[in-house]
Structures are given as C-alpha cells and as structure tokens.
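Single Protein Entry

Contents — chain, fold
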Amino acid sequence: MAYLIITNGLDQGQLFELSGGENIIGRDEGADIQLCLNAVSRRHAILKVCAETVSIQDLESANGTLLNNNLLKKEAVLQDGDLIKIADMEFKFCKGLLSAHSQVDTIRLNDFRSTAAVETLLARSDLLKQLRQFFYDAEFDEVETPMLSADTVVDRYLYPIGVEVAGQQYWLQTSPEFGMKRLIASGMNSIFQICHAFRDEEKGPLHNLEFTMVEWYRVGDTTEEAIQFLGELATSLLPYYSFETISYQDAFLTILEFDPLKVTEKELIHVIASLDFEAPQNWRALGKDDWLNLLLTEFIQPRLGKQQPCILYDYPVSQSALARIHPENPLVAERFELFIDGIEIANGYHELLDAGELHQRNLKTNALRQLDDRPELPIDSYLAHAMEHGLPDCCGVALGFDRLAMLALGKASIFEVLPFPFPRA
C-alpha cells in the first residue's frame, strides 16, 4: 500500500491512502485528494499507482509542485520518504505498511485537536450572539424542531441520511423547513432557529456533511420585505454598509447577453458551445435547467457580491423548489439567494401554500431522482397535512452559518471555522 501523510499545519497527521491507478490532487470537488486552498489548482497534480511504482506529475498547475524542495518539471517515480509540497501543504510519501508506532501515532496525537484555532472559535461564538440579537431585536421567537423526523425535504440534489428506528425509516433533516412550517401553520408568526442539518455526499471547502443552518419565517412579509430583511442581516454581521439586488434574468442579460427565461434549448446549446470553459463531458445530455445552472455556476455566480452582498431574485419557474409562482409573471418563482464574494450564503422563498402543487412538484422531483439513480423520498408528510389545514402567507430563508462565519472571519474554507469537520468528527 502507499500513503501520503500531511506533515505540517493543523491537519498534520492526516493520512490519504492511494488507490491503484490515477489519484488526482486538486481543489476540484471531484479530486481524489481535495485540498481546499486558493493556491491549489482545480487539477493540480496526479499520482499514478502501479504494481511496483508510484509516480507523480504536475498537471500544469498555476503554482507548481515541489518534490524534495525541487520544482517538479516532469513525471517522477516516488521513493519511500519523499517530501511533496503543494501550496502551503507538505506531504510525506510512504510506501508499504504503516508502522504501528510511527505514522499511526502521529495521526492519533493530532486528531484530538480542533481544526479551528481557539481564537476563531471564540469569534464564531460572538458572531452567534450577534445573530441571535438581530432576530430578538426584530421580535422573532427562537424555536427548536426535531433533527430526526419521519419527513424529509424532497429535492433532486439533496441527499438526506436515513436512520432506522424500531424498524421504521426516519431522516436526519437537510433543513428544519418542514418542522418550522408546521409551527407557522399552528399559529406562530415570526420564528427563527439555529440548528445542525445533515446532507450526505457533500464535501469541499464550502461543504460538510453536518453543518449549522439558520432558518427563519415571518408571516405577512412580501418578497421585497423578506429580501430587505436578508440584506440588513448580512450588512449587520459583515463589514458592508449596503447590499444590491439583481434579477436572475438581468444577471444573464448583463453577463452572458441572453434571456434565460426565453432562450430555447437549441439556442442554449449554441451559447454553451461558444464559451471558453471546461464543461462536463456529457453536458449535451443534460437538460435546460442543468445548462442554466452550469452557466450560473461558471459565469454568473463568481461575479456576484464582489463589492457588496448581492441578492439574486426571480428564478425561472422550473427552478421554483418550494417557492410560489410570481402572481404577475408566470415565468418566474419568488425565490431569492444571497451571494457574497461569489459564494451562496442563503436561499429564500415566498413560500408555496398549495398542498396539491407541493404533491405535484414532489412527484416530478422523485421522477428526476430516479433518472439520477437516486431513491425516491416520501411524498406524504406532516407538512402536506399542515398545508391542507392552512399555511399562512409567509416568507422563509435558510442561511449557511458556517459560510457566513468563514467570510466574517476571513477564512478560505469552512473547515477553518468548524471545531471538528466530518472526516475528524
């Protein structure tokens, strides 16, 4: 067997076992060894594991790869004990079985430590106090709902974690949405919650399987009022004096010069083919919303919130999720998202109230999940019954607190503001 072991920094002692064949090192979420550092290229270097040898090659990275303190210019065969440096991360290459009293002890000695500095954790605590006070000043009530429930949000791209209790299927919540809406249907008006949420198969500098979510609902708010409240929250917790808004349609018109609400699939294919970027190999087999999401991620999102927080609003109706259709423009849904420095921080809706429409959307989403070889999720729910009883007109927002803390404290990854990320939980 062959391994890389980190020899410096807070992650000192972390071990990566190399599998046979090619092992990509890079910032990309699909990399075999993902390094969440800005100085690391998306595909930085490759380790090739053969029967007798392991070699390393730089993939024309922006900042290069060092092997034993020398810049790696061509593929090189690694020897046991070789030192590799990528950005500020240093690794030792180990070939053969781990010594029970060397590397393993190093890992155990360092695994007890928090990945975040004590000063960072104290600053995170202060930020939580400010956040709570912001809601208290706005006369919100703090609530708690179950993290383990028989219900789960039905979303094509969210992967809830199932837990069996006494032979019955339950779910760790991907957000407290269902429980909080049940409270709104029960008569509460302005509520917020700070809780842990869980999403499987999420990794990278902005993702952790278990994360802290802030979610709130207020009865009677218009979409404009909900957007204003979100902007005020962002500017109260981060060093900005103002925020800006732009519609989904105008963002595409300004940056890519086409109308996402009216473009045909044929026209969209020509747009993607004409752009200079690394598209997925199978992009032509995707659907229109996937193409728009691809362009949003590659060209729109990186430009949002560079000078001040930016709220993108009025998404296409096909991307409405649990937002209601705009009463004056049937092409869009009253959905909005907050971006800061190109990073999505929060997602909000003028909430869908129609239980029948929720059922239809869940059916469609489950059909799409099956196309992705994903299991169906339960359509019947306590929330559906609450909506049949009557869910008041309201707006709701979910915000990723770890990302907010990362930006507020000037960090490059949420791992730097988490005490124990999932790989070390």
Q: What stands out?
A: DSSP finds ten helices and 22 strands in the chain. Residues 97-110 have pLDDT under 50 and may be disordered.
